[in-house]
TrEMBL record:
Domain of life of the source: Eukaryota
Primary localisation category: membrane
Protein known as: V-type proton ATPase subunit a
Function comment: Essential component of the vacuolar proton pump (V-ATPase), a multimeric enzyme that catalyzes the translocation of protons across the membranes. Required for assembly and activity of the V-ATPase.
Keyword match tRNA processing: no
Its membrane topology: Multi-pass membrane protein
Family statement: Belongs to the V-ATPase 116 kDa subunit family.
Keyword entries, A-Z: Coiled coil, Hydrogen ion transport, Ion transport, Membrane, Transmembrane, Transmembrane helix, Transport
Lineage: Eukaryota, Metazoa, Chordata, Craniata, Vertebrata
Organism for this UniProt entry: Ictidomys tridecemlineatus (Thirteen-lined ground squirrel)
């Protein structure tokens, strides 16, 4: 309500800054507590936001605690750095002791070189000349810098240095960075002050740790004893400092969780208050909010309770105000429906009062998945896994586990229904780990094919088997037209004898392909029908006559008729006259090309019925293309129409051409509220017939072509079902069949690893990979083929202010800071 006011000029900016300062302190405390390996408590109880008086006390306590912690931590780091430097010094003294073995008593006392012009160099001892102004630099250098360091010394000092170095046996911690690395101890001997300055500058450039080098043995011993004493003292002081720091952090860890939650709540409250505006007296806050109508009573009760507990002299009150804005969409869900609603919301949040596809997705989504994943064994394993998650859903560890497991946990009810429906379709396909179950006994009788069981007249008419035919034929075919061979359909699902047949794939492909087409057309027709309810609710009855009904006629006259032919052929033609049955594909093609030669057809009068259907289809296309644009143009010119209620029209999407034409010069809301003249003129000017016509033409072309492509898209039900069955069959043939055919001597020993490998491959390939593939294809069928027929998904999700949306994780607090 105060968009014109900058963020820094709003009323509660100071309180927000105070909360951010408290967040910064709490983040620092959490980091120090985590660094000290102290467990952070995370309780289930959410403490309330503190009143302003307690906020000041909390701020004072946290600031004192921060100052104390920073001071103690600083002293600890200083002591630790000193300790590490002393330890390095002791290692340096120990190693350099073996470098130079010389006694000061025998050192020459010459202070400068004699003149070389008159005297020969041979008159002086070489060591005496070196000892004229001999100096030492000792210290430690990083292992990776030794070679470059030595080359630099040689080039700069022109060989007037002697470098001796050795690697330390143990790794030491760097006092500056804290990294544990390997070090080299070096001793540089040089003569001359200028070279000494160059050596020290080079050591500084390579970040060497330089320590004083003792001149005598006694000085070395004295320094070593002093270092040992100081190291012991530093260890004692450092341990006491760490103990005190841990006590302070443990005490702070007890209340850090509740304080993090309280600060987050305070900051959220002040952020919301900054969005409110003040009245004229600057003493009353005004807020406009969306609230579900069913929760208005709870809202009034909460305002009264808040006013009473705060001791306000004037009670807070609430009024409902009329608005032309589109409300956000609130869909209440529970644990069961939440997963299916998330699938729909991923496509788009529904507009206000739009038909919600999630209700129907609860059944159609797992069913279409099961059509592609139909296997009794695999579905039962998936059902057991989901059932285990459902039983243990109250365990907090599952919801806070790794991302992949948490994803499975959030979709546990979807997995449960997918597994249950897969068991059902597995029974229909009679498929369990690629094997069939002979529950009711096969309805095919092989013995009826033998000639001995028939009369002489039947021998002459029918093609029967005898011993010679059975011996010499590689493939034997059962003829259902022979009496006694086919004794009726299997009670439930596919007859198990098809699992042994060589033409099994031919039969199942024909069955699953037709089943996929039937399911797809029914699914899309249902989506178009749901669009009628949207038009009725939004009072756009003209869309029913000019859009929905032509779409239904176009769909049913072509593809609905295809379903009729499939079902009619199943019902009318039997085994006796199956060879006379025409091909559905040929008949469907002949429907559009009008062949000159008459065909037998499926039924009498088929040609006339098909012509009527084509005429209806041809008439529905121009109505679909031009009906709605012409009607809106006619309505915009001031005509009245049947089935349109202007006075009660509800604004759903602002500034659309359709609404502009509907509103015209009428009122937007019910009642006598008139729009301003300027707004009325603007809406009249915004009507664009060309844009409306192009939009409708594009929609109609997309729908007409989509009916064909979407119907073909549903054939993925057949394709993935075939792929799943074949993968399962290959896995059984390559593993279980090999393990079961081994002789009894070694068969048991081989069967155990074969079963284990079969189980692993079944889970990872058939359950996870194939299941994910079927899941994605089922989502595509719902988003593109089903929801595209009626669901716009252009709304805004209702996200109310709630403390439950605030995360209680400490890591989130770090990110905010």
């Amino acid at each position: 309500l105060n968009q014109n006011v900058s963020s820094f000029q709003r009323k509660f900016v100071g309180e927000v800054k105070r909360c951010e300062e408290l967040e910064r302190i709490l983040v620092y405390l959490v980091q120090e507590i985590t660094r000290a390996n102290i467990p952070l408590p995370e309780g289930e109880v959410s403490p309330p936001a503190p009143p302003p008086k307690q906020v000041l006390e909390m701020q004072e306590q946290l600031q004192k605690l921060e100052v104390e912690l920073r001071e103690v931590t600083k002293n600890k780091e200083k002591l630790r750095k000193n300790l590490l430097e002393l330890i390095e010094y002791t290692h340096m003294l120990r190693v350099t002791k073996t470098f130079v073995k010389r006694n000061v008593e025998f050192e020459p006392t010459y202070e400068e070189f004699p003149s070389l012009e008159n005297d020969s160099l041979l008159d002086y001892n070489s060591m005496q000349r070196l000892g004229a102004k001999l100096g030492f630099v000792s210290g430690l250098i990083h292992q990776g810098k030794v070679d470059a360091f030595e080359k630099m010394l040689w080039r700069v000092c022109k060989g007037y240095t002697i470098v001796t170095y050795a690697e330390l046996d143990e790794s030491l911690e760097d006092p500056e960075t804290g990294e544990v690395i390997k070090w080299y101890v070096f001793l540089i001997s040089f003569w001359g002050e200028q070279i000494g300055h160059k050596v020290k500058k080079i050591c500084d450039c390579y970040h060497c740790h330089i320590y004083p080098y003792p001149n005598t043995v006694e000085e070395r011993k004295e320094i070593q004893e002093g270092l040992n004493t100081r190291i012991q003292d530093l260890y004692t002081v450092l341990h006491k400092t760490e103990d005190y720091l841990r006590q302070v952090l443990c005490k702070a860890a007890e209340s850090v969780y509740s304080r993090v939650i309280q600060v987050k709540k305070m900051k959220a409250i002040y952020h919301m208050l900054n969005m409110c505006s003040f009245d004229v007296t600057n003493k009353c806050l005004i807020a406009e909010v969306w609230c579900p109508e069913a929760d208005l009573r709870d809202l009034r009760r909460a305002l009264e309770e808040g006013s009473r507990e705060s001791g306000a002299t004037i009670l807070s009150f609430m009024n409902t105000i009329p608005t032309k804005e589109t409300p956000p969409t609130l869909i209440r869900t529970n644990r069961f429906t939440e997963g299916f609603q998330n699938i729909v919301d991923a496509y788009g949040v529904g507009s206000y009062r739009e038909v919600n596809p999630a209700l129907f997705t609860i059944i159609t989504f797992p069913f279409l998945f099961a059509v592609m994943f139909g296997d009794l064994g695999h579905g039962f394993v998936m059902f057991l896994f989901a059932l285990l998650l459902v039983i243990n859903e109250n365990r907090p560890g599952l919801n806070q586990s790794q991302e992949i497991l948490r994803m499975f946990f959030n979709g546990r009810y979807i997995l449960l229904l997918m597994g249950l429906f897969s068991v059902y379709t597995g029974l229909i396909y009679n498929d369990c780990f690629s094997k069939s179950l002979n529950i009711f006994g096969s309805r095919w009788n092989v013995s009826a094919m033998y000639s001995s069981s028939h009369t002489q007249q039947e021998h002459e008419k029918l093609v029967l088997w005898n011993d010679s035919v059975v011996r010499h034929s590689r493939v034997l075919q059962l003829d259902p037209a022979i009496p006694g061979v086919f004794r009726g359909p299997y009670p439930f699902g596919i007859d198990p004898i098809w699992n042994l047949a060589t033409n099994r794939l031919t039969f199942l492909n024909s069955f699953k392909m037709k089943m996929s087409v039937i399911l797809g057309i029914i699914h899309m027709t249902f989506g178009v029908t749901l669009g009628i309810f949207n038009h009725l609710h939004f009072r756009k009855k003209f869309n029913i006559f000019l859009v929905s009904i032509p779409e239904l006629l176009f769909m049913l006259c072509i593809f609905g008729y295809l379903i009729f032919m499939i079902v009619y052929k199943w019902l009318v033609f039997s085994a006796e006259n199956s060879r006379e049955a025409p091909s559905i594909l040929i008949e469907f093609i002949n429907m559009f090309i009008f062949p000159a030669s008459g065909t037998s057809g499926l039924y009498p009068g088929q040609e006339h019925v098909q012509k009527v259907l084509l005429v209806v289809t041809a008439l529905s296309v121009p109505v679909l293309f031009l009906g709605k644009p012409l009607f809106l143009l006619w309505l915009h010119n001031g005509r009245s129409c049947f089935g349109v209620s202007r006075s009660g029209y509800t604004l759903i999407r602002k500034d659309s051409e359709e609404e502009v034409s509907l509103l015209g010069n009428q009122d937007i809301e019910e009642g006598n509220n008139q729009m301003e003249d300027g707004c009325r003129e603007m809406t009249c000017e915004e009507f664009n017939f060309g844009e409306i016509l192009m939009t409708q033409v594009i929609h109609s072309i997309e729908y007409c072509l989509g009916c064909i492509s979407n119907t073909a898209s549903y054939l993925r039900l057949w394709a993935l079902s075939l792929a799943h069955a074949q993968l399962s069959d290959v896995l059984w043939a390559m593993l279980m069949r090999v393990g079961l055919r081994v002789d009894t001597t070694y068969g048991v020993l081989l069967l155990l690893p074969v079963i284990a490998l079969f189980a692993v491959l079944t889970i990872f390939i058939l359950l996870i990979m194939e299941g994910l593939s079927a899941f994605l294809h089922a989502i595509r069928l719902h988003w593109v083929e089903f929801q595209n027929k009626f669901y716009v998904g252009a709304g805004t999700k209702f996200v109310p202010f709630s403390f439950s949306l605030l995360s209680s994780k400490f890591s989130d607090g770090d990110n905010v800071a």
